Amino acid sequence: MTRTTTRRLVAGVLGAGLALTGVATPAAHAAAAHDTSVSVGRLVLNPTDRGYTGSLPVTVNYRGAEASYLELTLTEPVPGAFAGLVPSEACITISPTPLRTISCIVPGGDLQPGERRRFTVDFRVLTAPRAHAMSAAGGRVTVDAGDANPANDTASFDTRFRSATGSLRNPQPYQWDTRTDASLTVGSATLTRQEDGSWAGRLPITVRSAGDAAHDMYWLEPTLPAGVEVAGIEPEEGCAGVCGVAGGAFMQGEERALTLLLRAPAEVAPGDLGTGSVRLFALFGWGDELVDVSPADNTASFGVRAVDAA
Q1: Domain count for the chain
Q2: N or C: which terminus of the chain has fewer CB atoms within 10 Å of its end residue's CB?
Q3: Pair (239, 126) in one structural domain
Q4: What confidence tens digit (pLDDT) does each residue in 134-192 have?
Q5: What's the rounded Cα separation, in Å, for the pair 281 and 299?
Q6: In this structure, how many other beta carbons lie within 10 angstroms of the beta carbon of residue 223?
């Protein structure tokens, strides 16, 4: 299976268009020229048991002559860090790499003339907390309303990572991985006869991600002996030619156990059915496979046997 074919299969599992973002597209907007401004607070990411999390306060002042909704464009300070708005609102990724640019509707519906509205943008960075504080630059928010005063429409912000001991002092630049560092191990598969005469079995798989490169999801691409096919995956996730690893993006150092469900028709004879393999890969943004540090440990082989119950 070529990588182009794999990407098409993944797209089919996820759904067409914007399904990779998990959110809806803001409606087309053709507002008359208004006067707006946007300001932001400070983004501080605090260590948790699953990376760093934090919220950026945003204030929008709207001075248009009539009620109107506004669109917010966000540039991430760290790849893959955007986690949503509070209150929640529709967003779409409009540029995926290296730092995503994301367009959202300002939460709360139409703004009234003279209204000031506050909300927050949530971020999560799935990297192991450090003993020292860290920093990242380049975050930016922009409000789009066909503004008569565009200089007020953009606000930049820096990001601080609080150390594991709570300090923000003397931050070091946060250097994120640009390539994934994942691996997988597999067991063996034994198929047993079912009541209808067919065969069914389970293949245990363990996936580990050692790095913190931004990614949306990991996927498994199985290659199976003749007559054997995939029946599903546990925990349940999309599975059509390639199977998703449930749980979304991995925390640095995280390991997950899963099971690939296999089946074969009744006419298959018991015994050794051959050798299969599973390839692990990650996607981020609009569907391109990410380059891994060690591709060799992204593929593992396994044997498949069919055994009649005693």
Answers
A1: 2
A2: C
A3: no
A4: 999 999 999 987 555 565 689 999 999 999 999 999 999 999 999 999 999 999 999 99
A5: 9
A6: 12
